[in-house]
Amino acid sequence: MKSYNVAVVGVTGMVGQKMLQVLAELEFPVNNLYPMASKRSAGKEIVFNGKPYVVQELCDEAFDQEIDIALFSAGGDTSARFSPVAASKGVIVIDNSSAFRMDPSVPLVVPEVNPEDLDWHKNIIANPNCSTIQAVVALKPLYDAFGINRIVYSTYQAVSGSGVKGYSDLENGIKGEENTFYPHPIAYNCLPHIDSFLDNGYTKEEMKMVNETQKILHDDSLRITATTVRVPVFYSHSESINVETKKAFELDAVRHLFTQAPGIILQDDPTNDLYPLARVAENTDEVYVGRVRRDFSVDNGLNLWVVADNIRKGAASNAVQIAFELIKRGLI
Amino acid sequence: MKSYNVAVVGVTGMVGQKMLQVLAELEFPVNNLYPMASKRSAGKEIVFNGKPYVVQELCDEAFDQEIDIALFSAGGDTSARFSPVAASKGVIVIDNSSAFRMDPSVPLVVPEVNPEDLDWHKNIIANPNCSTIQAVVALKPLYDAFGINRIVYSTYQAVSGSGVKGYSDLENGIKGEENTFYPHPIAYNCLPHIDSFLDNGYTKEEMKMVNETQKILHDDSLRITATTVRVPVFYSHSESINVETKKAFELDAVRHLFTQAPGIILQDDPTNDLYPLARVAENTDEVYVGRVRRDFSVDNGLNLWVVADNIRKGAASNAVQIAFELIKRGLI
Q: Which residues are annotated as active site (chains A, B) (predicted)?
């Protein structure tokens, strides 16, 4: 099998570290690894597949090296600055930031949902927001079978979505120490505030869920609203998703779809206490779907509870799965 | 001012203890206090307003004493068994259990919302479910001003809603110990499971929110669905509430209503990080409303974030407020 030279940009961050772990675990065919980070972290040693590597400083010239794929997870500003440079030098960038997600010339891809969008990439491919990825994996089979009119999202999001700083705030808060990152204590609290606020009263995170869901499902007519909330959980986002389909459905047919759909594990046996849980999803790549119930308050209404590891399926694993899909489709 | 002989049934439980605290703090005119509990707790000493009292065993004969009001919080079975006995002996029972809530002959009352229902009580008055109380306090001004077509609830509920056992599970879970009450770890997890499951796939808690909202607002045509979730928070329930009103509204008018409505504190200045928080609501009697936003996905759509202390406004304080309202209306 052919192997590839892979750069991981932002390799010392939480998602960057997870990218290394997932590349190794999923046995991505890595030839040479190019770990990169900001000047501050350059020179540090990281380990991949049992071998030590020295972290390179991210700079334009770094992409003159023989790199096939660069997995970026170093924040939006860094991506905006360096992804086009890498792309112009023939590197295929899979970018975990929000910098290019809504750029119409950049595909926004979840491999289980819209792999065909990879076919028109121009060397930058955007990895969607964590909370969107798991939602669209769950919604795609419903969308195909019944159509979707409207979605109401309420999320229960883990602190690891804020990286090491959010994680530390929860760890420290549990010990009775002050927050340094979130504006309010996250220990034993729910913060209806993820990313910054916009003029319309929504957070950026909420609007990401609205806009990215439409883009990934190629349907600007989808009506969507979202309330996104940080909860004192370390890993895995949970989501209460209320859906109105276009066509009528039977619940058994819905459950059957979930058993057949790629990337989904149906956990829906509530009388035996089986439903998706953050701590069960942790460190896995699947999207867990359960609490499948009819919403009697509207025609064709459905309630779902959807959980996935936000750092793996919501970030690192989805990026690596995109890389695999590029190989499968002969695009690299 | 006239004072009243008050029994607190289930006085050693978490809500019973809070009832004592609230009676004292709100200066309810208590003449004699009759603390009652099961045989197991009888004989214990409790303190009210600085004075010690011995806990009496709950039995039929206990209500032969000179008691005006009995605040019950000892579970549904105990209420079902003893509330009718107390009521038949002329005691006005304010019952915190679910035993009588949906009984058409029993008023289900939140004083800010439907105090007039007290007028037809027959010595048993039901205190609504914690998650319902805070929701209807927030929804009532909207209902009156604009009408409501449909409500989608997603809740973030504190472990104290399960009493001491739930509280201990979170305390112990944080220390790395096993749960003994919840079927799954509650530390760093979200459990979409409150109370037991019904044949329709909903939990009893979810159906309580549906049915009790309709009863309190006197509107069986209200279309409601709910997903109720236990989160690792000690006190205060948070709720993401999506509402469709009948008439059009302006957001400023909605916010103004919340500033005028009884029992509500509007906290809605997100750019200054002001929105309702569980840890701010803790140990207060108000319902906090914020994240007031238009839901663009539907006509007359509105999103709210509503938080209140589940043990105080969601239980003990609402019961004591009912007792005050009985006095105010000359019903006792």
A: 130, 237
> Mean pLDDT in chain B?
98
Domain that holds residue B51: 4-127+315-328
Digit-coded pLDDT (tens) for B221-255: 999 999 999 999 999 999 999 999 999 999 999 99
B59 is catalytic: no
Give yes or no: residues B13 and B123 share one domain. yes
Q: Does B189 touch chain A (CB under 8 A)?
A: yes
φ/ψ of A142, rounded to 5, equals -70, -40
Q: How many structural domains are present in chain A?
A: 2
pTM: 0.97
d(CA A286, CA A50): 26
Q: Are residues A189 and A238 in the same domain?
A: yes
Task: Note the ipTM here.
Answer: 0.97
Pair B110, B176 in one domain: no
Per-residue 3-state assignment (H helix, E strand, C coil) for A82-98:
HHHHHHHCCCEEEECCC
Contacts of A296 in chain B (CB under 8 A): 223, 225
Q: Using the beta-carbon criterion (under 8 Å), do B242 and A152 form an inter-chain contact?
A: yes
CATH code (residue A250): 3.30.360.10
Do B121 and B64 lie in a common domain? yes
Q: Does B305 touch chain A (CB under 8 A)?
A: yes
Q: What is the DSSP string of B249-299?
A: --HHHHHHHHHHSTTEEE--BGGGTB---HHHHTT---EEEEEEEEETTST
Residues A118, A167 within the same domain = no
Of A156, A193, A242, the CB nearest to B231: A156
- To the query of whether residue B237 is one of the catalytic residues in this protein, the response is yes
**Whether residue B180 is found in the same domain as residue B276:** yes
Q: Which residues contact B40 (CB under 8 A, 6 or more apart)?
A: none
DSSP per residue over A126-155, as a string? EPPPHHHHHHHHHHHHHHHHH-EEEEEEEE
Kindly state whether residues A106 and A154 are assigned to the same domain: no
| CA-based nearest residue in chain B for residue A303 | B227
